[in-house]
Q: What sequence folds into this?
């Protein structure tokens, strides 16, 4: 799951609505979103149906002109303000919402037209770089606060040899979707002495938590409101600091998605253009609005940025790969004869046997071998899946 986060009034809910077409309250004042909105968005990938020259029968996803739209879970979180980790604003509620998130999409007002609290100000008078830094700090301090009250006991227990520090920390952060490998990598990057945790200063512990936050909750920065003055300049400034920022106009994406839903235009999320299908049903004002979206957003940036952001969160931050399981490797079908019915995402490094277990425990237990349908070769249990693989698993019980 990916969380959509940021301070109030930057366009989080508009981004969420554009990604999911789920109606949510949108307004230009802080704290419009009080309760989290959950919905289904999509990642966009080129479908292998074109590679095989077949007509597919999607079941768990969509295929439009050779483009697969794979469903993913998104959550639109309440706005975060400075001091949230201490409970200010809706801080505690917001931070609890991101416990299960594997990555975060941070929506930033690139135009600088909202202050640190999310209140409207003159365009360009607030520095969005401050928003990037403050959100990182808030999440780090929230995580540190979870650990702080038990840190002395955890450190003493580890030094006494009753249980190793990594396992103790894994237990403490178990509700935050933080895994052992996250903790080990954060410890390595922090250069802390795991043998003597009682000697660590508060600053060293916070530094470790900051690394743990960046590893376990990676953040993608999305510079929203690129249609406003100063936005392009501010995105350039953020990039000069080494920040990876995706330019975005969530309002434009929402307008295109709604027009496509009504059959007025031909548009697939992530496209760099659209085609008007029913000009007679569009008024002059609507046509002018579409022309401006094309000129100021699509022609300039290549897309509205919404779909690019979702793809980047799952493929660049979370390093997911896609695969297509089939039962019949010759016909590319399942047991009902449906061609390439399903596509799934798994983390990079997933093996053939691990894949079998993800489909069904019995399939993993009885795994014999798998078939790489593209190469028509048998592959063993330790074969690592590649993006776009079509796999047929042969087990003692059945073939999938």
A:
């Amino acid at each position: 799951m990916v969380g959509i986060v940021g301070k109030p009034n930057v366009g989080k809910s508009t981004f969420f609505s554009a990604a999911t077409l789920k109606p949510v309250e949108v307004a230009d004042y802080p704290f419009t979103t009080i309760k989290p909105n959950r919905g289904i968005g999509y990642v966009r990938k080129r479908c292998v149906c074109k590679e095989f020259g077949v007509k597919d029968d999607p079941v768990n996803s969509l295929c439009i002109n050779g483009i697969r739209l794979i469903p993913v879970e998104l959550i639109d979180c309440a706005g975060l303000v400075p001091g949230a980790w201490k409970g200010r604003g809706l801080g505690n509620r917001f931070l609890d919402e991101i416990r299960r998130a594997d990555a975060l999409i941070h929506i930033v007002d690139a135009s600088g037209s909202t202050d640190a609290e999310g209140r409207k100000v003159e365009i360009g008078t607030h520095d969005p770089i401050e928003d990037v830094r403050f959100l990182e700090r808030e999440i780090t301090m929230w995580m540190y606060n979870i650990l702080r009250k038990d840190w002395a006991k955890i450190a003493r227990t580890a030094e006494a040899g009753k249980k190793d520090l990594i396992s103790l920390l894994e237990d403490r952060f178990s509700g935050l979707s933080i895994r052992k490998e996250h903790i080990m990598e954060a410890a390595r990057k922090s250069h802390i002495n795991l043998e003597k945790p009682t000697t660590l200063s508060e600053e060293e512990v916070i530094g470790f938590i900051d690394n743990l936050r960046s590893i376990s909750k990676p953040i993608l920065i999305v510079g929203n409101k690129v249609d406003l003055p100063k936005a392009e300049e501010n995105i350039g400034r953020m990039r000069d600091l080494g920040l990876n920022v995706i330019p975005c106009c969530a309002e434009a994406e929402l307008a295109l998605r709604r027009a496509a839903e009504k059959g007025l235009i031909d548009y697939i999320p992530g496209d760099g253009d659209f085609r008007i299908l029913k000009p007679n049903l569009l008024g002059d004002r609507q046509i002018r609005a579409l022309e401006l979206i094309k000129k100021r957003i699509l022609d300039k940036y290549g897309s509205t940025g919404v779909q690019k952001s979702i793809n980047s969160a799952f493929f660049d931050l979370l390093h997911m790969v896609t695969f297509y399981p089939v039962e019949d490797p010759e016909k590319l079908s399942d047991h009902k004869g449906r061609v390439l019915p399903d596509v799934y995402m798994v983390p990079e490094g997933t093996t053939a046997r691990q894949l079998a277990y993800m489909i069904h425990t019995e399939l993993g237990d009885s795994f014999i071998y798998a078939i790489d349908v593209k190469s028509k070769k048998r592959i063993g249990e330790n074969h690592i899946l590649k993006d776009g693989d079509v796999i047929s698993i042969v087990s003692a019980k059945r073939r999938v």
Remarks:
- The chain has a mean pLDDT of 92.
- Residues 136 and 210 are 8 Å apart (CA to CA).
- The chain has three domains: 2-136+218-313, 146-211, 322-395.
